[in-house]
Amino acid sequence: MNRSFAALFILCFCLCFSAIWAQQVPVGNWQTHFAYNQAYTVEKAGDRIFAGGQHLWSYSLSDYSFNAYTKVNGLSDVGIRLLRYDESSGFMIIVYENSNIDLWKSGSFYNIPDIRNANVTGSKRINSVYFSNQLMYLCTDFGIVVLNPAKREIKETYVLQNGTKVLSALDLCRYNGYFYAATSGGLYKVDENSQSLQNFANWSLVDGRPVNFCFTFNSQLYTATEDSLFDVQSGVFQFRYTGATVFQRIRSGLQSLYICESGGNRRSIMVFDQLGQLKDSIRNINPYDVAEINPGELWEADYWEGLVKITDLQNKEVLKPNAVFSNAAYNLRIYNNDLYVASGAELGWVSALNSDGISKLHDGVWTTYNRFLNTPGMDTVIDIVDVAVDKKNNYIYGASYGGGLIEIHPDNTSTVYKNDGYIQYQIGNPGVSLVMGLIFDDQNNLWISNYSAPDQLVVKKNDGTWQKFSFPYNVSEKSASQIVIDDAGQKWLLAPRGIGIYVLNDNGSIDNKNDDQIKLLRTGSGSGNLPNNEIYCLEKDKNGKIWVGTADGIGIFNCPESIFSQEGCDAELKIVKYDLNAGLLFQREAVRTIAVDGANNKWIGTNNGIWLISDDAEKIIHRFTKDNSPLPSNEINKIVVHPQTGDVYIATNAGLISYRGEATEGANTNDDLLIFPNPVASGYEGTISIKGLVENADVRITDVAGQLVYRTKAQGGQANWNGKNYTGQRPRTGVYYVFVTNSDGSEKKVGKFIYNE
Question: Which of 297, 301, 446, 695 is the most exposed place for a label (fewest CB within 10 A)?
Fold first, then answer.
């Protein structure tokens, strides 16, 4: 092969796979899927408008693009309290609710965890920041902390201690040669040139009433309590304005002064002229912060709508990227390769009154179904806690904890089922239909759990008719949530609040009640042998076993098809040894969710993060927490694994995130073999994946001479290679072949890729 032909071959090979690789996420990488419809703080830095809420994002004023910033690409935390930019130093400070700090400059982030980690008695909350001489003065509940952003270090701390009482520093400004501090004990001042600002004896009291804000505007000093504005004339407070509710934030603009009021019956921005006189207001918003970047152009952090642009004090434009609608992610489902997020909730089995509905991810684009976006019928349907999709007609079904069952059609029309003889009201609570779990069986019948109803299991059959099942237990035990169907067609119904698990065998005849068998599983040998009666989740693995997550670990039913036999089937309480410790599987852990990947490994979600354990539970493969990964929280609500891509979607109480796992579902043939990345870039340190394989295929990688470089077994339908040979070295640059075969040799396939050393 001559050099010109070889170069042309490599170029064509690269171009062929560039489009494919652009859509692939390497194994072991994380992606965030956060919502951006709730903001607490806003700031302009350079040509971007930054907004912070649970997470951080920005909007470009030059190319109108959105950027999201998370723990995946630089941030150290979640839950943003304050954003402020110092133009003189070029640094923006990001203050978190837990008093952690990130600094941003020119696209790079630097973490300053000193205050969060400080050994301080009481609150360490950071209330505001004041910039002076390229230093940042942080007002905290224990005093004023001076931060040097260039050196990324704490310079000094001023504790404002009046006698034995430490005053909370709420705001700081400079006026006529003095620093003024708004504190919980009044307004204080000190000469800005004092050599001992740390000595509170050098600070003098201006007025003893507690104040939350102090600032200058149009060469005048102002202060404010939580709901009243004053200017300060010769040390005397002059009343200006009392709000209808609390002040969330006060910002000095280019031409006007702005007060964000939110609470009670008032949600508006009050606008004051240069003399401090109220001149106008902006309504129909829920403002927590505002920044004026041009005369008459405001950017608002809105608690309801996220980032909002306001012009001429009246024209409102909501700007948000295409994203999941809400960070409230209670449940996840995958149907037809699409991810569905149920954003409702139940709080201790009381309605959360969440109307965020359902979000669907299809080919990277999010679609939302809720009352805010005019989905018919959703105005009365709250707390969607589960989703099912009918493969026959693509109807979307949503389980509402309070509003019954909603059926959404492809044309966006909908039908709500409740109090119709099948979906029933809660016992003793007419008007409320609590639907918790949904699942289609192999005959396309939709099974529905009707929590605390007279008949807690309902089925909408494939022919459109209905049936219901009443279990022979007392009213206090009519508890029903998640449904799992085992390989024998038996329905396993999670009964929360310490009841256990109901199992129904309808003997394949839904309408014939005479041959039904029903059993309640609980703790105790012969009764189910559950590790705990408080059940949080059920999952069927690839071998047909039923895994049960409880308030005290995991039980495994290895013989679910025998549950009604004379011998019965108790849960196995498996003893495992992790590191040097042996004990029952996840004993003393509240197991909230279990998911099974293509290799039959188990993803376990708890209140303390995530574990990936092997098929037999004997080995921990991965352990993720918010401290060693981009997880936004350790409190895990739900995990699902995409069977084709291996993406592990994780719903936390702080939003949705995904991890590209090592395993996918095995295919019937090797015809869809795909290698990525391809070509492998020089210096690439990530995983090289071969997907689209038959289950547990044998995979061999050779050079063009046929010399074996690496051999492995697929995890389900995907094999992974770290890019090194058996000696731990990177192979030479060149073309490499992948030979794939199943156990009996009937399915063979050859692929090739370019590897750059």
Answer: 297
Could you read off the pLDDT of 647-679 as tens digits, one per residue? 999 999 999 999 999 999 998 898 889 998 999
Compute φ and ψ for 190, nearest 5 degrees.
-150, 145
DSSP 428: T
Between CA 83 and CA 392 the distance in angstroms is 49
What's the rounded Cα separation, in Å, for the pair 346 and 456? 17
- Distance between CA 368 and CA 366 in Å, rounded? 7
Report which of 212, 215, 214, 219 is spatially closest to residue 274, judged by C-alpha positions.
219
Task: Give the whole-angstrom CA distance, residue 697 versus residue 598.
Answer: 12
User: Count H helices, E strands: the chain?
Assistant: 2, 66
Predicted pLDDT at 24: 66
The whole-angstrom separation of Cα 136 and Cα 89 is 10
According to DSSP, residue 462 is labeled T
- Is 80 exceeded by the pLDDT of residue 495? yes
Pairing verdict, β 48-53 and 143-148: unpaired
Distance CA 208, CA 187 (A): 6
> Tokens 């579902």 identify what position?
665
* CA angle, 455 then 457 then 462, to 5°: 125
Using an 8 Å Cβ cutoff, are 249 and 299 in contact?
A: no
pLDDT of residue 23: 45
| Tokens, residue 118 | 């400080």
- What are 133-139's contacts with CB under 8 Å, separation 24+? 134/86, 134/88, 134/89, 136/86, 136/91, 136/93, 137/172, 138/95, 139/169, 139/170, 139/171, 139/172, 139/181, 139/182
> Are 206 and 241 in contact, with CB atoms under 8 Å apart?
no
Residue 744 CB burial class (10 angstroms; 0-12, 13-18, ≥19): exposed
Query: Which residues share a beta bridge with 538?
Result: 548
Task: Give the number of other Cβ atoms within 10 Å of residue 172's Cβ.
Answer: 23
- Nearest CA to 189 out of 221, 164, 165, 157 is that of 221
What digits encode the pLDDT tens for the residues 408-451? 999 989 999 998 999 999 999 999 999 999 999 999 999 999 99
Domains of the chain: 3-24+666-755 (2.60.40.4070)
Residue 645 CA to chain centroid, in angstroms? 20
Q: CA angle 368-371-375, nearest 5°?
A: 65
Q: Burial level of 282, CB count in 10 A (0-12/13-18/19+)?
A: buried
619 φ/ψ angles, rounded to the nearest 5 degrees? -135, 140
pLDDT for position 8: 33
Question: Which residues have C-beta within 8 Å of that of residue 60, sequence separation ≥ 6?
Answer: 47, 48, 66, 67
Evaluate whether 439 touches 484 at the Cβ level (below 8 Å).
Answer: yes
What pLDDT score was predicted for residue 14?
35
Q: Is 569 exposed, middle or buried (0-12, 13-18, 19+ CB in 10 A)?
A: buried
Q: Is the peptide bond between 679 and the residue preceding it cis, with omega within 30 degrees of 0? A: yes
Tokens of 192: 């800005």
Distances (CA, A) of 579 to 573, 582, 583, 641: 19, 8, 11, 27
pTM of the model: 0.91
For 97-134, list the strands marked E by DSSP. Answer: 101-105, 108-112, 126-132
Q: What is the pLDDT of residues 712-754, one digit of tens each?
A: 999 999 999 999 988 888 999 999 999 999 888 888 999 999 9
Question: 468-472: long-range contacts at Cβ-Cβ below 8 A with a sequence spacing of 24 or more?
Answer: 468/422, 469/504, 469/506, 469/513, 469/516, 469/518, 471/502, 471/504, 471/518, 471/520, 472/518
Q: Is the pLDDT of residue 264 over 90?
A: no
Q: What angle do CA 474, 475, 481 make, to 5 degrees?
A: 105
Residue 55: partners with Cβ closer than 8 Å, 6 or more residues away: 32, 34, 36, 68, 69, 70, 78, 80, 327, 632, 655
